[in-house]
Protein backbone atom coordinates (compact mmCIF):
# COMPACT_ATOMS: atom_id res chain seq x y z
CA UNK A 1 0.00 0.00 0.00
CA UNK A 2 2.89 2.41 0.83
CA UNK A 3 6.32 3.24 -0.48
CA UNK A 4 9.25 5.22 0.90
CA UNK A 5 12.03 6.88 -1.07
CA UNK A 6 15.32 8.46 -0.04
CA UNK A 7 17.44 10.08 -2.76
CA UNK A 8 20.29 7.84 -3.88
CA UNK A 9 18.71 4.71 -2.42
CA UNK A 10 16.40 2.01 -3.72
CA UNK A 11 12.66 2.51 -3.29
CA UNK A 12 11.19 0.66 -0.32
CA UNK A 13 7.79 -0.74 -1.26
CA UNK A 14 7.31 -3.36 1.46
CA UNK A 15 6.92 -1.81 4.90
CA UNK A 16 6.95 -3.94 8.02
CA UNK A 17 3.39 -4.24 9.33
CA UNK A 18 3.59 -3.90 13.12
CA UNK A 19 -0.17 -3.78 13.75
CA UNK A 20 -3.32 -4.04 11.66
CA UNK A 21 -3.21 -0.30 10.95
CA UNK A 22 0.49 0.54 11.49
CA UNK A 23 3.46 0.20 9.17
CA UNK A 24 7.16 1.09 9.46
CA UNK A 25 10.08 1.53 7.09
CA UNK A 26 13.65 1.29 8.38
CA UNK A 27 16.04 4.12 7.44
CA UNK A 28 19.61 2.90 7.90
CA UNK A 29 22.30 5.57 8.20
CA UNK A 30 19.59 8.18 8.84
CA UNK A 31 22.12 10.85 9.86
CA UNK A 32 22.91 11.28 6.15
CA UNK A 33 19.29 11.69 5.01
CA UNK A 34 17.83 15.14 4.37
CA UNK A 35 14.43 14.38 2.81
CA UNK A 36 12.09 11.40 2.69
CA UNK A 37 9.24 10.82 0.25
CA UNK A 38 6.29 8.75 1.46
CA UNK A 39 3.73 7.70 -1.12
CA UNK A 40 0.87 5.36 -1.81
CA UNK A 41 1.62 2.67 -4.38
CA UNK A 42 -1.78 3.08 -6.05
CA UNK A 43 -2.69 -0.57 -5.62
CA UNK A 44 -4.85 -0.24 -2.49
CA UNK A 45 -6.56 3.03 -1.52
CA UNK A 46 -7.36 4.05 2.04
CA UNK A 47 -10.84 2.99 3.19
CA UNK A 48 -13.43 5.77 2.90
CA UNK A 49 -12.84 8.47 5.54
CA UNK A 50 -9.33 7.23 6.39
CA UNK A 51 -5.79 8.49 5.81
CA UNK A 52 -2.29 7.90 7.09
CA UNK A 53 -0.34 9.97 9.58
CA UNK A 54 3.40 9.84 8.85
CA UNK A 55 5.89 9.79 11.72
CA UNK A 56 9.68 9.94 11.94
CA UNK A 57 11.31 7.92 14.73
CA UNK A 58 14.93 8.05 15.77
CA UNK A 59 16.77 6.79 18.85
CA UNK A 60 17.77 9.44 21.39
CA UNK A 61 21.10 9.29 23.22
CA UNK A 62 19.78 6.71 25.66
CA UNK A 63 18.42 4.54 22.83
CA UNK A 64 14.77 5.43 23.49
CA UNK A 65 12.53 5.97 20.47
CA UNK A 66 11.62 9.62 19.73
CA UNK A 67 8.59 9.93 17.44
CA UNK A 68 7.69 13.13 15.59
CA UNK A 69 4.66 13.71 13.38
CA UNK A 70 5.73 14.75 9.86
CA UNK A 71 2.37 15.03 8.11
CA UNK A 72 -0.17 12.94 6.24
CA UNK A 73 -0.97 11.02 3.09
CA UNK A 74 -4.54 10.46 1.90
CA UNK A 75 -6.32 9.23 -1.22
CA UNK A 76 -6.55 12.88 -2.33
CA UNK A 77 -2.87 13.57 -1.45
CA UNK A 78 -1.14 10.26 -2.12
CA UNK A 79 2.45 11.46 -1.68
CA UNK A 80 4.44 13.91 0.41
CA UNK A 81 8.05 15.04 0.82
CA UNK A 82 9.33 15.60 4.35
CA UNK A 83 12.53 17.22 5.56
CA UNK A 84 13.96 15.14 8.40
CA UNK A 85 17.50 16.53 8.63
CA UNK A 86 16.58 19.17 11.23
CA UNK A 87 14.43 16.91 13.39
CA UNK A 88 17.12 14.87 15.10
CA UNK A 89 17.49 17.31 17.96
CA UNK A 90 13.80 18.06 18.46
CA UNK A 91 11.38 16.75 21.04
CA UNK A 92 9.01 13.89 20.52
CA UNK A 93 5.25 14.16 20.31
CA UNK A 94 2.28 11.93 21.05
CA UNK A 95 2.10 9.05 18.63
CA UNK A 96 0.17 5.84 18.06
CA UNK A 97 3.29 3.63 18.16
CA UNK A 98 3.88 4.08 21.93
CA UNK A 99 2.89 0.66 23.21
CA UNK A 100 4.88 -1.20 20.57
CA UNK A 101 8.36 -2.45 21.28
CA UNK A 102 10.06 -1.57 17.99
CA UNK A 103 13.78 -2.34 17.95
CA UNK A 104 16.02 0.74 17.83
CA UNK A 105 19.69 0.81 16.90
CA UNK A 106 21.86 3.95 17.00
CA UNK A 107 22.13 4.32 13.20
CA UNK A 108 18.64 3.24 12.12
CA UNK A 109 15.60 5.50 12.18
CA UNK A 110 12.09 4.63 11.07
CA UNK A 111 9.20 6.12 9.15
CA UNK A 112 5.91 5.05 10.67
CA UNK A 113 2.51 5.26 8.99
CA UNK A 114 -0.62 4.95 11.12
CA UNK A 115 -3.98 4.53 9.36
CA UNK A 116 -6.47 6.82 11.11
CA UNK A 117 -9.73 8.67 10.60
CA UNK A 118 -9.42 11.86 8.52
CA UNK A 119 -11.04 13.79 11.39
CA UNK A 120 -8.24 12.61 13.71
CA UNK A 121 -5.58 13.60 11.17
CA UNK A 122 -7.06 17.09 10.86
CA UNK A 123 -6.65 17.66 14.61
CA UNK A 124 -2.94 16.76 14.71
CA UNK A 125 -0.13 19.27 14.26
CA UNK A 126 3.03 18.12 12.44
CA UNK A 127 6.42 19.53 13.42
CA UNK A 128 6.83 22.75 11.45
CA UNK A 129 10.39 22.08 10.30
CA UNK A 130 9.35 18.89 8.45
CA UNK A 131 7.36 20.79 5.83
CA UNK A 132 9.16 21.23 2.55
CA UNK A 133 9.05 24.74 1.12
CA UNK A 134 5.85 25.40 -0.81
CA UNK A 135 7.75 27.68 -3.19
CA UNK A 136 8.61 25.66 -6.28
CA UNK A 137 12.27 25.16 -7.06
CA UNK A 138 12.17 27.37 -10.18
CA UNK A 139 10.80 30.35 -8.25
CA UNK A 140 13.27 29.78 -5.43
CA UNK A 141 16.16 29.55 -7.93
CA UNK A 142 15.03 32.72 -9.70
CA UNK A 143 14.83 34.67 -6.44
CA UNK A 144 18.28 33.46 -5.37
CA UNK A 145 19.67 34.33 -8.82
CA UNK A 146 18.19 37.85 -8.62
CA UNK A 147 19.68 38.40 -5.18
CA UNK A 148 23.05 37.12 -6.35
CA UNK A 149 23.04 39.29 -9.49
CA UNK A 150 22.06 42.43 -7.57
CA UNK A 151 24.68 41.84 -4.87
CA UNK A 152 27.35 41.13 -7.49
CA UNK A 153 26.52 44.22 -9.58
CA UNK A 154 26.31 46.42 -6.47
CA UNK A 155 29.76 45.34 -5.35
CA UNK A 156 31.19 47.26 -8.34
CA UNK A 157 29.27 50.48 -7.64
CA UNK A 158 31.36 53.67 -7.63
CA UNK A 159 30.42 57.29 -7.17
CA UNK A 160 30.77 59.74 -10.07
CA UNK A 161 33.79 61.23 -8.32
CA UNK A 162 35.48 57.80 -8.31
CA UNK A 163 34.84 57.15 -12.00
CA UNK A 164 37.72 57.47 -14.42
CA UNK A 165 36.87 58.08 -18.07
CA UNK A 166 37.34 55.01 -20.22
CA UNK A 167 35.79 55.10 -23.72
CA UNK A 168 35.76 51.28 -24.03
CA UNK A 169 33.56 50.71 -20.94
CA UNK A 170 29.84 51.35 -20.45
CA UNK A 171 28.51 52.24 -17.01
CA UNK A 172 25.01 51.47 -15.79
CA UNK A 173 23.69 53.50 -12.85
CA UNK A 174 23.08 51.30 -9.78
CA UNK A 175 19.54 52.67 -9.40
CA UNK A 176 18.68 51.26 -12.86
CA UNK A 177 19.77 47.77 -11.74
CA UNK A 178 17.82 48.19 -8.49
CA UNK A 179 14.68 49.25 -10.39
CA UNK A 180 14.96 46.24 -12.73
CA UNK A 181 15.51 43.96 -9.73
CA UNK A 182 12.43 45.24 -7.89
CA UNK A 183 10.24 45.07 -11.02
CA UNK A 184 11.36 41.53 -11.82
CA UNK A 185 10.70 40.35 -8.24
CA UNK A 186 7.27 41.98 -8.19
CA UNK A 187 6.29 40.33 -11.48
CA UNK A 188 7.68 36.97 -10.33
CA UNK A 189 5.57 37.17 -7.17
CA UNK A 190 2.44 37.95 -9.19
CA UNK A 191 3.03 35.23 -11.79
CA UNK A 192 6.10 32.94 -11.66
CA UNK A 193 5.67 32.15 -15.37
CA UNK A 194 5.34 35.75 -16.62
CA UNK A 195 8.63 35.43 -18.53
CA UNK A 196 7.07 32.85 -20.89
CA UNK A 197 4.67 35.37 -22.45
Automatic annotation (TrEMBL):
The top of its lineage is: Eukaryota, Metazoa, Chordata, Craniata, Vertebrata
| Pfam families registered for this protein in UniProt | Hikeshi-like_C (PF21057), Hikeshi-like_N (PF05603)
Arranged from A to Z, the UniProt key words for this protein are:
Cytoplasm, Nucleus, Protein transport, Transport
> What processes does the entry annotate via GO biological process terms?
cellular response to heat; protein import into nucleus
List each copy of the Hikeshi-like N-terminal domain by range: 6-130
Which protein is depicted? Protein Hikeshi
Primary localisation category: cytoplasm
Q: What is this protein for, i.e. what is its function?
A: Acts as a specific nuclear import carrier for HSP70 proteins following heat-shock stress: acts by mediating the nucleoporin-dependent translocation of ATP-bound HSP70 proteins into the nucleus. HSP70 proteins import is required to protect cells from heat shock damages. Does not translocate ADP-bound HSP70 proteins into the nucleus.
Annotated InterPro entries: Hikeshi-like_C (IPR048364), Hikeshi-like_N (IPR008493), OPI10 (IPR031318)
Q: Which family does it belong to?
A: Belongs to the OPI10 family.
Q: Which GO terms describe its molecular function?
A: Hsp70 protein binding; nuclear import signal receptor activity
**Where can this protein be found?**
Cytoplasm; Cytoplasm, Cytosol; Nucleus
Amino acid sequence: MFGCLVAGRLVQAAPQQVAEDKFVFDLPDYENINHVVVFMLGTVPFPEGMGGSVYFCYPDQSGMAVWQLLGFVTNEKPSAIFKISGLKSGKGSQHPFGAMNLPQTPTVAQIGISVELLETLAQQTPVASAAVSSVDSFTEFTQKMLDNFYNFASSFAVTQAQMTPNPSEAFIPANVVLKWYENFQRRLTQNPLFWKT
